[in-house]
Amino acid sequence: MSTHPATASTRPANSEGREISMMTGLHGDAEREVPDVPPDPVMEALKLNVFYGDFHAVHDVNLSFGKHEITALIGPSGCGKSTVLRCLNRMNDLVAGARVDGEVTYHGQNIYARKVDPIAVRTQIGMVFQKPNPFPKSIYDNIAYGPRVTGMKVDNMDDLVEEALQGAALWDEVKDKLKQSAYGLSGGQQQRLCIARTIATKPDVILMDEPCSALDPIATSRIEDLMLQMRDDYTIIIVTHNMQQAARVSDRTAFFTARPDETTGNRTGLLVEFDRTSNIFANPADKRTEDYISGRFG
Amino acid sequence: MSVATSTAREVTRTVSTGRSKDKSLGSLVFLGALWFSLFFGVMVLLVLIVDTAIEGSPRFDSALITEYGSRVRPESTGFRAGILGSLWLMVFTALFAVPLGIAAALYLEEFADGDRWWNRLIELNLQNLAAVPAIVYGLLAVAVMALMGFGRSGIVLGGAIALALLILPVIIITTREAVRSVPQEIRQGSLALGATVWQTTWRQTLPSAVPGIATGTILGLSRAIGEAAPLIVVGLAGSVRFDPTGVMSEITALPMMIYSLTSNSQEEFRTAASAAIIVLLIMILGLNALAIYIRNKFQKTW
């Protein structure tokens, strides 16, 4: 029962693809065939360096993110994985003093090129944050917000809202209270609402910055199930502190670590190893990865 | 019970009751000093209000607020012109000061680069502006009026400009506080969906900050309503005998009328002034109560 990406992309969102993911659920996708290299990469980072003022935060990261794959970025705190993630939709632009060297390409186009509008980048590459951050509005308006501000052509907003909530496996829980405040939802529901909100603008790639770290285990497993379902339609890149989570959901894992500078002592993040998740966890090529995975470090 | 638990309980009790079990002489003396200060402050205010109320009590009648000021019949002189004038001033002060204040605060919080020297200069000036004596704003308003070519003094426009300048720093500072209290996550969530900074400010930050802005504005207005000094400079009369009809109307304001009557030699006028002080206090307390109501009713917990 392999869900090869090539076939997955052509299948409608809620046919058997969803059931397969549901069945595999928390046990991950051991059966899923993951090619040696990311297939049909949607995004690539090429010699990506990030600076905050004089501080060199990330050094020479090269990554590519395969279409309809889940890529996990793992590593100890301060290793730059969240920084890398935020570069992928130019959210780092909002940090004062942040500077990016190298390229991040989206379908071959460098998103840091001068003529590229970061606003347009963010509509294609959505983001879900660590802490659920619904807007202080109704559930309905939370979903409709993205399409409204981006001026998306929407035939029927009600349908779009339903579709987005279905896509985030939240519809059944909230369909009777769409006009109520999103703050009445539980943490896990709020996070799924944020995912639904991201889906509503019809992005191609979804970035998730430790999406489950503020949630309890049950809410976490629901989000993980959801990610596996969503893989059929989106390319997902997730930063996580939870290695079991990376093992459960991701097809490919990038391990980062932090290297202290000899003179200043500032810790610069760098990519140690990028491989299929099964390889990273079963037989990592790098000693540092092995130490981290086996819990001897970090 | 472990030490940690008992200590925690002790701290909880101290915090929740405000009482400390510390009974050393020094702390008792200090506590006594605190109580005295509190007592002193409250007593002075109370004595002032009660004394004024007693003095003004013969004039708590409808004529006080429905009649114009009268030199001929001091026993039924009223403050109609002053009350209406103050209300008109408040409306136009708000019209001038609120949009300007909110715009300035939003620029400083959401758009300005705090590292630039001119933004730092603006910030420094803002702190200083809040401490400028009210009368200086009156002089400034006179200058502005002269520059705009308005020959007449003592009109709604001049008074409103003076008061707007006076409360502008208050509005800017409170609006900035309100805007700053909107969590960064909300802005990021909006920007990550492809909204522009402008859309994010307009659709997320500003609506969430409205209760705080309203509270600050009302508190600013309640300060402005009690001011007489800038209005004297702008040339408001101590008494007029007609209702304001527009921005160019000559008006008076309640504090102005009180000021001109308290120095009058006739006992009836001083009584009327005391009663008018109570009216002014009620207006101010009403505004403050409204501010507290808005703050509590719409306060957001994130």
What does the model show?
The complex is a heterodimer of chains A (about 300) and B (about 300). Chain A is of the alpha/beta class. Chain A has a domain at about 5-25 and about 35-125 and about 205-295: P-loop containing nucleotide triphosphate hydrolases (Rossmann fold), CATH 3.40.50. Chain A is built from twelve helices and ten strands. Chain A is globular. Chain B is mainly α. Chain B has a single domain (about 65-300), classed as MetI-like fold. In chain B, about 75% of the residues lie in helices and about 0% in strands. The mean pLDDT of chain B is about 85. Chain A: Pfam families: ABC_tran. Chain A: One of its GO terms (biological process) is phosphate ion transmembrane transport.
| Average pLDDT score of chain B | 87
The fraction of residues in strands of chain B falls at under 5%
Largest interface (CB < 8 Å): A-B, 24 and 20 residues
| Count of helical stretches of chain A | 12
Structural shape of chain A: globular
Summarize the helix and strand pattern of chain A as letters.
HHEEEHEEHEHHHHEHEHEEHH
Low-confidence segments of chain A: 1-28
Mean pLDDT of chain A: 86
Percentage of residues in strands of chain A: 15-25%
State the helical fraction of chain A. Answer: 25-40%
Pfam families (chain A): ABC_tran
GO cellular component, one term (chain A): membrane
Domain ABC transporter (chain A): 43-283
Keywords (chain A): ATP-binding, Nucleotide-binding, Translocase, Transport
Give a brief rundown of this model.
The complex is a heterodimer of chains A (298) and B (302). Chain A has 298 residues and is α/β, with parallel strands linked by helices.
Topology, please?
The complex is a heterodimer of chains A (298) and B (302).
Chain A: H1 5-8, H2 16-24, E1 43-52, E2 55-65, E3 70-74, H3 81-87, E4 98-106, E5 109-110, H4 118-124, E6 125-128, H5 139-150, H6 157-167, H7 171-174, H8 187-200, E7 205-209, H9 217-230, E8 235-239, H10 243-249, E9 252-260, E10 267-276, H11 277-282, H12 287-293
Parallel strand pairs in A: 2-10, 3-8, 3-9, 6-7, 7-8
Antiparallel strand pairs in A: 1-2, 1-4, 4-5, 9-10
Chain B: H1 3-17, H2 25-56, H3 63-66, H4 80-111, H5 117-129, H6 134-147, H7 156-180, H8 184-192, H9 197-225, H10 229-234, H11 254-262, H12 267-298
Helix pairs in contact in B: 2-12, 4-7, 4-9, 4-11, 6-7, 7-9, 8-9, 9-12, 11-12
